[in-house]
Write a structure and sequence with these properties.
The strands form two sheets. Strands 3-2-1-4-5-6-7 form a seven-stranded parallel sheet, with helices on both faces. Strands 10-9-8-11-12 form a five-stranded parallel sheet, sandwiched between helices. It has 15 helices and twelve strands. The relative contact order is 0.12.
Length: 379
């Protein structure tokens, strides 16, 4: 199908750095669609991803939704924009955007609606989001033509919650396979900044601080490993992973090895940090499709992970997937990787990169979305 005259509007909750936000960014950057035909609407703020999209020539509209009380006005603005734009397809990302964007699109007379599910479980205390998800389950029979789940685990969970299984499909995240594996220059640069010598085995993780991401599990695991591996250090990268985070600092102090744990705030130069690592660890309690795990694999890092979301599908190596979710089991799985030689870990990393290139290239994911658009527009 010729998409030169087809207009697609993406609606997302916000555009700060995050898995869904980066997935949206990578998708529209890799689709051969005219920039003028693509509109991105953020319900809240522009964020760093929004700024980057604007710099690339994409249109980004921000609605500045701040609370529940601004929802009616947000829906009104959405309806006005959608009526004016008259897009051929409205694609929404995350629960709030699925609900508000879906309702607004229907009220604007648009029926070609795609919802996007990006997670399996909610973090503890997300009561309002849990309610919205329940409402979405009820409306999944009438609002979206298709529901795209980022992972098979997320699809199964949402079908259990009452989502319409007949219009659900799975399209995972894609990766820019032109990115090279870890390089020595970046490795030396980052290790120099953080005073990490080459004899140190650096295990890294990437993710914003919250209970679901399991930073506590990672930090507590070091007490089981440090006595056997005195040259071991951890590095945690992501939003609110800093010295001002009192809860995080409490865990680090209680670990008994605070000098072995490095904290780095959210950064746009994450590839450099992958280069500085020797091993990557995904320690989440819940995930959909773990983007950072795929990125680490593409960087040719040997990886271990908790058994969450589609991590096992990505890794395709159960030896380095934890049996349960605890600091002890995480330490046991990390130990399996540490017991290997540098050469053996390098072989695992090289095979991981090959797997991402073969099965999860962004070009392939982009084609899957274009096929989905074609199916919807042909109905």
């Amino acid at each position: 199908m010729d998409y030169s005259d087809k207009k697609i509007t993406h609606i997302i909750t916000g555009l700060n750095l995050g898995g869904a936000e980066r997935a949206l960014q990578k998708l529209i950057l890799n689709q051969c669609l005219p920039h003028k035909n693509i509109l991105v609407i953020s319900l809240t703020t522009t964020g760093s991803i929004g700024i980057q999209l604007q710099e690339k020539g994409f249109r980004v509209i921000t609605l500045d939704m701040k609370s529940f009380f601004s929802v009616p006005n947000t829906i009104k603005k959405l309806i006005e924009i959608l009526k004016k734009e008259s897009p051929d397809i409205v694609q929404t990302w995350l629960y709030h955007a699925d609900l508000l964007g879906g309702i607004a699109a229907r009220l604007a007379g648009i029926t070609n609606i795609i919802w996007g599910i990006r997670t399996t479980e909610l973090r503890r205390g997300s009561y309002s989001t849990a309610i919205i998800r329940r409402i979405c389950a009820l409306l999944s029979n009438v609002i979206p033509k298709k529901i795209v789940s980022v992972a098979y685990s997320a699809q199964r969970r949402h079908i259990d919650l009452g989502y319409n299984s007949k219009n659900m499909i799975v399209i995972g995240n894609g990766f820019d396979t032109s990115i090279k594996a870890s390089n020595d220059r970046s490795r030396k640069e980052i290790r120099s900044i953080h005073q990490i010598d080459e004899n140190t085995i650096l295990i890294g993780s990437v993710g914003r601080f919250n209970q679901v991401k399991g930073q506590d599990l990672f930090i507590k695991s070091i007490k089981f490993l440090a006595p056997e591996y005195p040259n071991l250090k951890y590095i945690l990268i992501g939003r609110n992973n800093n010295n001002e985070n009192q809860e995080l600092m409490k865990w680090i102090k209680e670990s008994g090895y605070p000098e072995k744990i490095i904290l780095v705030e959210e950064t746009e130069h994450i590839e450099k940090y992958y280069s500085a690592m020797d091993i990557f660890c995904l320690h989440s309690r819940s995930e959909g499709f773990p983007n950072v795990l795929g990125e680490a694999m593409l960087s040719a890092l040997p990886c271990i992970s908790t058994n969450v979301g589609d991590a096992a599908l990505l890794l395709d190596n159960n030896k380095f997937i934890t049996k349960g979710i605890s600091s002890e089991e995480l330490a046991d799985t990390i130990n399996k990787m540490l017991s290997l030689s540098c050469y053996e870990r390098a072989v695992i990393g090289a095979k991981s990169r090959e797997r991402i290139i073969k099965y999860f290239a962004m070009s392939s994911i982009s084609d899957k979305y274009l096929c989905l658009y074609n199916e919807i527009l042909s109905c």
